[in-house]
């Protein structure tokens, strides 16, 4: 399911990672050590001590505290932006003058308006901008998309997608910002965006029109306990439901924060069969989110039932989908394919989530 690498340029692509701590340290950096045709070339963090320590940990000698310096390094071919969403715009504005391909973590901006601005910046600077919707490269989901395109389950009639994630109580200081709706990194954006990515990958296409998208978002859990024992008042919705046309059928989705047994399940019903996709349960609950999890598929037709999962890998779970994504980016850059969501797709995702995110207050 994962193709062998063939680089017509005959060399590895060097990746520089900005924000090379936290999520990047458990996902992007290990993924780059196991992705043929790519290598970790440089890292940048906001502090020289952490940047140097990260470089030493991963066996490289190029580290920076300035995003522009990393971007201008002639040894860097691809730039990954893995800072918190509210910092994306500032970092991107610092690196566009390098005119190198960029992988920007999802969400691309804190709002649709900012995402549109960033897409314009990328286009004006002739930059290929990939978006870190990791589920888009998961081999189980991409194979499902091929099966549906081949007509294995007939015409798609309906889709139901349910995604949930565990509570973060007590809330770590590094995650407190996600409870603020202004951060653009709450349940709607993170869980919602990655679930939609998984859904559209499995269907093999994006929706034809956004006009029919509707939804409701509610803030149920208003107060959260912080790591130091204080209280954090949330403003970002944590329970969301939505509906979307997927011609000729319909999709119903829900995203919930605070589930004690979280996971994602997508059921695609066709005129000649159905596909049920599930994230595989892990003891570490946060790894059940669609962008982090392994997936399983069950295809039911008149011919019988077929199940499949991703091929075995030595990578830790959090790095597997990023590795698949980097493989696809590698091929997009070196072979001219178009496997990975780009900035214009990110804008579409932001617009759909706007439709779902009409907030109702719970009293």
TrEMBL record:
The keyword Cell cycle appears for this protein: no
Entry GO MF terms: nucleotide binding; oxidoreductase activity
Protein name per its UniProtKB record: Uncharacterized protein
Signal peptide (residue range): none
PANTHER family hit by this protein: BCDNA.GH03377
Alphabetically ordered keywords of this record: Oxidoreductase
Record-annotated Gal80p-like C-terminal domain positions: 139-277
Source organism: Gordonia effusa NBRC 100432
UniProt superkingdom: Bacteria
Pfam families tied to this protein: Gal80p_C-like, GFO_IDH_MocA
Occurrences of domain Gfo/Idh/MocA-like oxidoreductase N-terminal (ranges): 14-132
InterPro entries: Gal80p-like_C (IPR055080), Gfo/Idh/MocA-like_OxRdtase_N (IPR000683), Gfo/Idh/MocA_oxidrdct_glycsds (IPR050463), NAD(P)-bd_dom_sf (IPR036291)
């Amino acid at each position: 399911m994962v193709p062998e690498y063939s680089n017509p340029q005959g060399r590895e692509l060097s990746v520089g990672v900005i924000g090379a701590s936290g999520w990047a340290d458990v996902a992007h950096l290990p993924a780059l050590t196991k992705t043929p045709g790519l290598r970790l070339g440089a890292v940048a963090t906001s502090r020289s001590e952490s940047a140097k320590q990260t470089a030493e940990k991963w066996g490289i000698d190029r580290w920076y505290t300035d995003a522009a310096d990393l971007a201008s390094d002639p040894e860097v071919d691809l730039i990954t932006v893995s800072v918190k969403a509210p910092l994306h715009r500032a970092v991107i504005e610092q690196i566009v003058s390098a005119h190198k391909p960029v992988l920007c973590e999802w969400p691309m901006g804190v709002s649709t308006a900012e995402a549109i601005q960033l897409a314009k910046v990328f286009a004006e600077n002739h930059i290929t901008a990939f978006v870190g919707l990791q589920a888009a490269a998961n081999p189980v989901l991409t194979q499902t998309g091929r099966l549906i395109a081949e007509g294995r389950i007939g015409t798609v009639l309906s889709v139901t997608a349910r995604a949930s994630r565990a509570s973060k109580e007590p809330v770590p200081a590094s995650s407190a910002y996600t409870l603020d709706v202004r951060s653009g990194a709450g349940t709607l954006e993170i869980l919602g965006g990655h679930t939609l990515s998984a859904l559209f990958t499995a269907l093999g296409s994006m929706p034809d029109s956004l006009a029919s998208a509707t939804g409701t978002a509610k803030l149920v859990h208003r107060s959260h306990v912080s790591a130091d024992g204080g209280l954090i008042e949330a403003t970002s919705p944590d329970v969301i439901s939505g509906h979307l046309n997927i011609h000729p059928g319909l999709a119903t989705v829900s995203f919930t924060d605070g589930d004690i047994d979280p996971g994602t399940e997508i059921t695609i019903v066709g005129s000649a069969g159905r596909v049920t996709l599930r994230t595989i349960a892990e003891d570490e609950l946060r790894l059940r989110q669609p962008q982090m999890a392994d997936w399983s598929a069950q295809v039911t037709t008149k011919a019988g039932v077929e199940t499949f999962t991703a091929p075995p890998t030595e990578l830790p779970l959090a790095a597997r989908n990023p590795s698949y994504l980097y493989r696809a980016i590698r091929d997009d850059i070196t072979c001219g394919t178009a496997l990975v969501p780009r900035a214009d797709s990110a804008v579409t995702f932001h617009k759909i989530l706007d439709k779902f995110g009409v907030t109702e207050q719970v009293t």
